[in-house]
Write a structure and sequence with these properties.
Helix content: under 10%
Strand content: over 45%
Number of strands: 11
């Protein structure tokens, strides 16, 4: 009954930018923390960023802080990921996901198993 659909991926040269969007169905979107994860070929899914249900706080993987920005618009049931200064190692399928508990921020935010709904992903390819 909950669906997440990512968009905005594509091909970009190193140093370029992309903005990903994740559109969520359902009336309870604003009750949940949301996250972005990514998975490159041959690698495990890894945490990228998260934002609290109210949008008051954001969290980032240490290696990405300063380049990526997560935001949300609860009125539009959408979460965004602004990606700047992209590097070839950023190439991956990017997924948005919903945290498994409402109106709560429970650390750590980085665990795949603590997110219960996932989108199909959008491919981001960064050329060198």
């Amino acid at each position: 009954q909950v669906q997440l659909v990512e968009s905005g991926g594509g091909l970009v040269q190193a140093g370029g930018s992309l903005r990903l969007s994740c559109a969520a169905s359902g009336r309870t979107f604003s009750n949940y923390d949301m996250g972005w994860f990514r998975q490159a070929p041959g690698k495990e899914r890894e945490f990228v960023a998260a934002i609290t249900w109210s949008g008051s706080s954001t969290y980032y993987a240490d290696s990405l802080k300063g380049r990526f920005t997560i935001s949300r618009d609860n009125a539009k049931n959408t979460v965004y990921l602004q990606m700047n200064s992209l590097k070839p190692e950023d190439t991956a399928v990017y997924y948005c996901a919903r945290r498994d508990s409402p109106r709560a921020t429970i650390f750590p935010m980085t665990l795949v198993r603590r997110y219960d709904y996932w989108g199909q992903g959008t491919q981001v390819t960064v050329s060198s």
